Amino acid sequence: MTANNHKISLKSYVQDQLRKDGERVSALILDQGAYVYVCGGIHMATQVEDTLIRLIGYHGNMNQDQANMFFKRFKVRKTTNLHDQKNTEIM
User: Fold this and answer.
1) What are the pLDDT digits (tens) for 53-90?
2) φ and ψ at residue 75, rounded to 5 degrees
3) 10-39: per-residue pLDDT in tens?
4) How many domains does the chain have?
5) Is residue 70 part of a domain?
6) Quick check: 53 and 71 in contact, CB under 8 A?
7) Is residue 25 part of a domain?
8) CB atoms within 10 A of CB 48
9) How far is residue 87 CA from its own chain's centroid?
């Protein structure tokens, strides 16, 4: 799934596209361990992260604290996996 501000209307943002397809996005993250790549400014990235946490909480039947903890572990796990893959490729 790709959401891009340049391909959507001026009054629609990546977060809007994520919300629109929230059930699918949540399933990809929760059930399939999808990777999430965000390119853009820190403000936009923070808004996307907040949106993902809300979606994970809602569709994963988690309260806010549980969703925050899940996303925190998700970020660490995915970052660690990327570093491990990089190190393996270099060797």
Assistant:
1) 999 999 999 999 999 999 999 887 766 555 555 444 44
2) -65, -45
3) 677 899 999 999 999 999 999 998 888 888
4) 1
5) yes
6) yes
7) no
8) 19
9) 24
Short-list 67, 60, 56, 71, CA closest to 18: 56
- The answer to whether residue 52 is domain-embedded is yes
Q: In sequence order, which ranges of the chain are alpha helices (DSSP H)?
A: 14-20, 22-32, 42-59, 64-90
Its domain, for residue 39, covers: 35-91
Q: Which of 73-80's residues contact partners 24+ apart within 8 Å by CB, and which partners? A: 74/29, 78/35, 78/36
Distances (CA, A) of 20 to 12, 13, 51, 90: 11, 11, 11, 39
Q: What is the pTM of this model?
A: 0.74
Would 57 be classed as within a structural domain? yes
